Amino acid sequence: MSEANGKKAILQLDGKTIELPVYKGTLGPDVIDVKDILTSGHFTFDPGFMSTASCESKITYIDGNAGVLLHRGYPIDQLATKADYLTTSYLLLNGELPTPEQKEEFDQKIRTHTMVHDQVSRFFNGFRRDAHPMAIMVGVVGALSAFYHNNLDLDDVNHREITAIRLLAKVPTLAAWSYKYTVGQPFMYPCNDLGYAENFLHMMFATPADRNYQVNPIHAKAMDRIFTLHADHEQNASTSTVRLAGSTGANPYACISAGIAALWGRAHGGANEAVLNMLDEIGSIENVASFMEKVKTKEVKLMGFGHRVYKNFDPRAKVMKETCDEVLAELGIHDPQLKLAMELERIALSDEYFIKRNLYPNVDFYSGIILKAIGIPTSMFTVVFALARTVGWMSHWLEMQSSPHKIGRPRQLYTGEQQRDM
């Protein structure tokens, strides 16, 4: 971060002039440093932090107007088509793409940490059988803090790095087990001769009775791409939650649990689950046209179309659409609900109403369809998102912990009662 050619913002306040430094990043808008406003007895007001940079970061850059998403400078479409998830994870965590030797070493580290302590499996028994898998994930990931606490030194870079490796390796195990628990099947332990996405699917769908179970390579490829496209997305609600919790010096496993809780919201990670729920409500392909007319009159909401950040198109959606088309074609699936989804897509891409408003299918729309096609139940969609985003959360946590930072303390505009006596 550097000052933007000596520019300063001038604020006239109560007859006084306050000069505010203006900083220039590598990309994106210049940023006005407003912390000196506090000395004048004032705060800034920015609900939702829509115009406020909460930190300095070198990890991910988004230009919503241009439809750009870069991880450490690399476009997301290149990473999704030319690299796998663990390569992208190494990049996010370390800042550079790995050499072949570094990639092999990184993959091996992940493989050696996929197991969880046997006592962790007992935590699952405390949940109702019909618990939402995300509720289980919030609990069991947070519970890892009980196993990695006393000997964890946040000031030790090696301790921080092994924490990232452990989480990246163990979250797929816990995610698969959260599904197994809800369907009453025995837990499947990691199989470390499988790839990352392949291992997850094996733990999800294999059973002890089926010793010959093989993961469909088309499923594994699609899942790996879903992981890659969801790995990080800058300072979103869940990432900001992880950073805020981490700023207190909280246990990192508890910080990731907090991120999972934030991601669970339907306005955030629950969007792809909402897509399938919407398809259920529409019912059949004959009802699509009338449903889309109701969207135009704002009687119903169209889930999985448009994006809060991307104003023209979601750069992840193009790659996800290609993957979606590939999966459906190669598997030869004839699911009425998937046909319904394709009809929604056709109308949104051809109807002037949706084109003018940039209501294009986004990454949540296509990922929901892919997950359904490969057998992931709707209740697990957000769990898959949390699994993929763990590396992004840890990258931001590591970045914050490795540099000076202050505990987060947002301000407020108080509009309650003045002091009054009883």
How would you characterize the overall build of this protein?
The chain is built from 17 helices and six strands. It has 422 residues and is mostly helical. The protein folds into two domains: 52 residues, Rubrerythrin, domain 2 (Single Sheet); 333 residues, Citrate Synthase, domain 1 (Orthogonal Bundle), CATH 1.10.580.10. The strands form two sheets. A three-stranded antiparallel sheet has the order 1-2-3, with no helix packed on it. The protein is globular and about 75 Å long. The N and C termini lie far apart (52 Å).
Task: Give a short synopsis of this structure.
This protein has 422 residues and is mainly alpha-helical. 49% of the residues lie in helices and 8% in strands.
